[in-house]
Design a protein that fits this description.
The protein is α+β, with helices and mostly antiparallel strands. It has helices spanning about 5-15, 40-70, 80-105, 110-135, 135-150, 150-180, 185-195, 195-205, 205-220, 260-265, 290-305, 340-360, and strands spanning about 35, 35-40, 230, 235-240, 245-250, 255-260, 270, 275-285, 315-325, 330-335. α2 runs antiparallel to α3. It is elongated and about 130 Å long. The relative contact order is 0.05.
Length: about 375
C-alpha cells in the first residue's frame, strides 16, 4: 500500500508509530482523501497557515516594535526610514511564503504545483519591488540634506525629480523581474521593443525635449517654485516644476501647464527676482498753481518718499517734467522694498494718500483733462452778413 510521505513525517513528529498491515490503525483516517488530497495534508497546511499568522504577529508586534525603540535612540536618522520602509514588505513576505508552503503541502507532485510556483515567484517579486520603491525615500532624503546645505531652493526643486526618477527606474526594472518570474521571456520582450524602438523614439521626441528642458530649468534656475513670472502671454505663480512640464497658477486662478522645452527656449520675465517693485507715475497739477506752492509740492513729495521705510533709498526722483495739455506734470519714481504684490500695493497706497494730503494742505488741486474756450469781439474789418 502506498503511504503518503507527509503522513510518515507527521507520525514521526507527533510520536505515533505507523504499523503497516495492522487491521485497525489509528492513523488510517489521516490517509483518507478529500477532493483527491489526504486529510494529513489538510492538517499540515492548516498548521502552516496558523504558524504563518503567529510569526507575522510576533514580527509586527514584538520584533519591529523593539527595532523601532532601538533605532529611535541612535543618531543615524535614516535607520528609522529604512525600518519604516521594510516593515510592510517584510510582513507581506512572511504571509506570502507561509501560504505558499501551505499550498505546496496540498498541491505538491500535482499539475497545480507547476501553476502556483511561478505565481508565487511573481508575487514575491512584486513585494520586493514594493519594498525598494519605499526605500527610495532614504537616498532621496539624504540627497535633499546634502543639497540643502548648499542651496535650499535647489534642494526643494531637485529632490522631487530625483525621487521620481528613482521610483520610475525601480518600477520599470521590477516589471521586467516580475515578467521573468512569471515564466515569460524578457529577451523576446526586449527584442520586440527593439523592433519598435524607432517608432517609440519618434513618438518620444517631445518627451525627451521636455526632459532636457527641465534639466536646463533646474541648472540655470531662471525661476523657482513660488516665483511670479511671465512667459509669453502667461502671467502667474510657479506651482511646480516637473520632468515634462511646469505648472503656473495665473492671477485669475486658472492653471496653465507649459512644456519645459518652451521654458528652455522662450524669454522668461521673473518679477520675483527683482530687488524691489518699481512705481513710476505722473502727477498733474492745475495751471493756476503759484510757483512757490508748486515748488513746495515738489520738495514735499521728495520728503515723503525719502522718509518712508517701505521704499528703497535708490532710484527715488521727483521732477517737474512737462507742461501738459491741461496740467503741470510731475514725474515720481521709486521702488518698494518688497516684491510681494499685495505688500507693494499697500506701500504704494500709503504714498498716494500722503501726496493727496500734501496737495490739499498747499491749497493746490489735481488737474484733469479740460478745455478752455475764449470768446472775443468780431474784427471791424469783418463784413457783417448781408453786406
Amino acid at each position: 500500500m502506498d503511504i503518503d510521505p507527509i503522513l510518515l513525517v507527521s507520525t514521526k513528529v507527533i510520536g505515533i508509530a505507523y504499523i503497516p498491515g495492522a487491521e485497525m490503525n489509528p492513523l488510517d483516517i489521516l490517509q483518507q482523501e478529500l477532493f483527491g488530497i489526504t486529510v494529513v495534508r489538510y492538517l499540515v497546511a492548516s498548521l502552516l497557515v496558523l504558524a504563518t499568522l503567529i510569526v507575522r504577529k510576533v514580527a509586527d508586534r514584538y520584533v519591529f516594535r523593539w527595532l523601532h525603540t532601538w533605532t529611535s535612540k541612535t543618531r543615524f536618522r535614516y535607520d528609522d526610514l529604512i525600518l519604516e520602509a521594510i516593515q510592510g514588505p517584510v510582513g507581506a513576505i512572511i504571509l506570502l511564503w507561509g501560504f505558499y508552503l501551505a499550498t505546496f503541502s496540498l498541491a505538491s507532485e500535482t499539475p497545480l504545483d507547476e501553476v502556483l510556483r511561478p505565481l508565487f515567484m511573481g508575487a514575491t517579486s512584486i513585494v520586493v519591488v514594493w519594498g525598494l520603491y519605499r526605500l527610495v525615500e532614504v537616498p532621496a532624503q539624504w540627497i535633499e540634506s546634502v543639497l540643502t546645505r548648499r542651496d535650499e531652493t535647489l534642494a526643494a526643486q531637485f529632490t522631487p525629480l530625483i525621487r521620481k526618477a528613482m521610483r520610475i527606474t525601480i518600477v520599470l526594472l521590477g516589471g521586467l523581474l516580475v515578467i521573468q518570474n512569471l515564466g515569460f521571456s524578457v529577451t523576446s520582450l526586449l527584442a520586440g521593443l527593439g523592433i519598435g524602438g524607432l517608432a517609440i523614439a519618434l513618438a518620444g521626441q517631445d518627451t525627451i525635449a521636455n526632459l532636457f528642458g527641465s534639466l536646463v530649468v533646474l541648472t540655470d534656475r531662471p525661476m523657482v517654485v513660488g516665483d511670479r513670472i511671465q512667459i509669453g502671454d502667461v502671467q502667474g505663480m510657479v506651482e511646480s516644476i516637473g520632468f515634462r512640464s511646469t505648472r503656473i497658477r495665473t492671477f485669475e486662478k486658472s492653471l496653465v501647464v507649459i512644456p519645459n522645452k518652451k521654458l528652455a527656449s522662450d524669454v522668461i520675465e521673473n518679477w520675483s527676482a527683482q530687488p524691489g517693485r518699481r512705481v513710476r507715475m505722473t502727477i498733474g497739477v492745475q495751471y493756476d498753481s503759484l510757483p512757490d506752492k508748486f515748488e513746495q509740492l515738489l520738495q514735499g513729495i521728495r520728503q515723503i518718499i525719502a522718509e518712508d521705510e517701505a521704499l528703497e533709498t535708490e532710484g527715488q526722483y521727483v521732477h517737474f517734467i512737462d507742461f501738459g495739455a491741461s496740467s503741470l506734470d510731475i514725474l515720481v519714481n521709486y521702488f518698494t522694498k518688497t516684491t510681494d504684490y499685495q505688500e507693494h500695493l499697500v506701500a504704494r497706497e500709503a504714498i498716494n494718500l500722503k501726496i493727496m494730503a500734501l496737495v490739499a494742505s498747499l491749497g493746490l488741486s489735481f488737474a484733469f483733462p479740460s478745455q478752455t474756450l475764449y470768446f472775443g469781439q468780431p474784427s471791424p474789418f469783418e463784413k457783417s452778413p448781408g453786406t
